[in-house]
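Illustration 12: FAD-binding domain-containing protein.
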Amino acid sequence: MAKTVVVGGGIGGCAAALALHRAGADVIIYEAAPELKELGAGINVQAVAVKMDRCGWNFTVDDNVINDCLPTFLNLEIRVLTDLGIPLEKFHAPSEGDAIFTSAVEYFTAEGFFISSEKVGLAAGASQPQLSAHRAKFHSTLLAECLRVLGQEKVILNSRFTQLESFEDHVILHFEKTTTKDPMPPVRCDFAVGADGLKSRVCRALLGDGAPRYTGRMIYRGLCEVEAIHADGCTVSLCGHENGNFICYPISEGMREKGQFLCNWGLCVLRTHPGGEEKWTSEATLEEIREELEEFGGNRFAGLTPLQLAERTEKIIGWSLFDRDPLESFDFGSVTLLGDAAHPLLPYGSQGATQAIMDAEALGVSYQNAMAKGTGIRGCVKEYSDLRCEVTGKVVIANRDMGSTAVLRVAAVETQGMAVDEKRTWCAEHGKRLHDEVIQKYRASMPKSVRAVAER
Ligand SMILES: Cc1cc2nc3c(=O)[nH]c(=O)nc-3n(C[C@H](O)[C@H](O)[C@H](O)COP(=O)(O)OP(=O)(O)OC[C@H]3O[C@@H](n4cnc5c(N)ncnc54)[C@H](O)[C@@H]3O)c2cc1C
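Figure caption equivalent — predicted structure in token form:
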């Protein structure tokens, strides 16, 4: 049983720890945060990460029948998140993860003209839902499962990774107490996974520089409560254009059931580099974004304009957006990278948590295969890198081009200079084409679950 250290207990780190544990590794998580606080706002996790969408086949019989049969007759595992042993209900129940089963993503111009809508998750025929969740609740559900299956003593907080030494058959990791900066005793392991996020020190230790690049964009995020639902209460809505776009979606199933809307919203805009260290929690004022929000006043979500939603928001947080050129490999011998540490992404197309979870799935599959084949940790890391490095690099590039949200840019560019009525008519006439050429093209290019490939 390989002693495996996962550095970072975020969504990717927790999913990786669970996948490796299920594959037979002896896993321990070291997390820098001294305590786990409610940080962040909403995230969307796509159906492919919740459970693999049956390789594109259309099954109509009961899920349990399929799940019981497939692994035996096709030697295929077909779940991702739910395969980590967490029942979907834990993510969905209002008293637990409280996630909404997302039904659609709709796109509007800055003026509020409907361009297109794509069905997602169950509504699109997937076997599992796409989830719209509060990041903290989603993360807590994963973390609780880590604490349950690994044991409290295997999730070590207040431990910031500082450096590593890599040898032929083992790795030595160095940590310090986050609160005091006191060095901790070195940790020897067979396998180390850097899941320490955007500003990954593991990545820096492996690559020297490796610093993420500022993309010239910021996203302002907030949460507010509305006494009505928008559309079916399960829809993600976007409006705007390339230089400014607004997203909002519901993230509380409990509130949806009461006909209310816990609205997670985000405004992505151009900004020069803010300077200094990027912080997840830099508070912003409404005045910083009022003008940009006003531009979208023709849009209404649950009866409110983007500005009115922001006015109801207690705390607005501004995030500088970074990404990094795709890496050539995730294979560093007995060390590898996962999630934002491996491929920080611009926040388009709901890919951040989704791809981190799919990395975790691939790591578990690779570990299991390598142990069966006797190729050891190095075999596992090589297979994982082959499965995930190139495909996630393509997501980085596709997201630099706005992912599916590029439909807003294309509509804005193609209607430039048109009168208002002309624009409305143009959107009605061209929405279907843009849906196929931009949204569906992007979706089709996104990575699929690795299991079928890995086990072929
Ligand atoms: C506080 C926070 C809030 C976020 N809020 C949102 C949001 O509202 N919406 C959204 O779409 N995405 C959000 N994200 C990003 C999103 O969660 C990630 O893109 C995605 O889930 C991929 O997860 P990850 O595990 O790779 O990285 P992360 O979620 O960034 O997790 C990395 C983990 O590693 C830990 N860590 C960092 N450095 C070290 C170190 N040196 N040693 C040990 N541990 C370390 C961090 O404390 C963190 O727990 C947030 C991320 C963070 C950290």
